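Re: that backbone. Tokens:
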């Protein structure tokens, strides 16, 4: 798990550097941002984050849930930071902020899940439901924004 988190950190750092370089080179106002370039950049960030999350080993038992949940939360936090570095076109600015907010909210819920014992089935179930609802909301937003790589659930 630690190796997966280290690999995730290196990958996030590389993508962050690339996003920063693109942001630094862009002096165009938000209204001049090319929607296709924006979508390609955000879609890549999302796809990379999902690929990194897929590398995490599923917890074998209840004792591994907290570590797994914290690793997922860290990946979501890194993804949100990368998304913050992207300048959206003016007509997508509100949706872009909503995507970041959803990603931050998911990270917070995964962190909460890490501190909840699986033996407390009621509390654990509530947080799992909240995570699922946030994932579905993200999917709706990703579809609306034409960002297929940002979908979190199947279907």
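Recovered sequence:
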């Amino acid at each position: 798990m630690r190796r997966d988190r280290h690999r995730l950190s290196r990958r996030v750092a590389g993508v962050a550097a690339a996003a920063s370089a693109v942001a630094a080179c862009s002096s165009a106002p938000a209204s001049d941002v090319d929607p296709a370039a924006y979508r390609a950049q955000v879609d890549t960030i999302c796809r990379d984050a999902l690929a990194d999350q897929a590398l995490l080993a599923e917890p074998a038992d209840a004792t591994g849930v907290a570590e797994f949940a914290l690793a997922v939360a860290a990946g979501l936090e890194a993804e949100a930071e990368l998304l913050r570095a992207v300048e959206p076109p003016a007509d997508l600015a509100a949706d872009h902020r909503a995507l970041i907010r959803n990603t931050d909210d998911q990270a917070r819920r995964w962190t909460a899940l890490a501190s909840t014992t699986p033996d407390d089935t009621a509390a654990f179930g509530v947080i799992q439901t909240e995570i699922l609802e946030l994932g579905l909301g993200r999917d709706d937003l990703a579809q609306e924004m034409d960002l297929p790589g940002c979908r979190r659930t199947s279907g």
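The radius of gyration is 16 Å. Confidence is low (pLDDT under 50) at residues 12-30.
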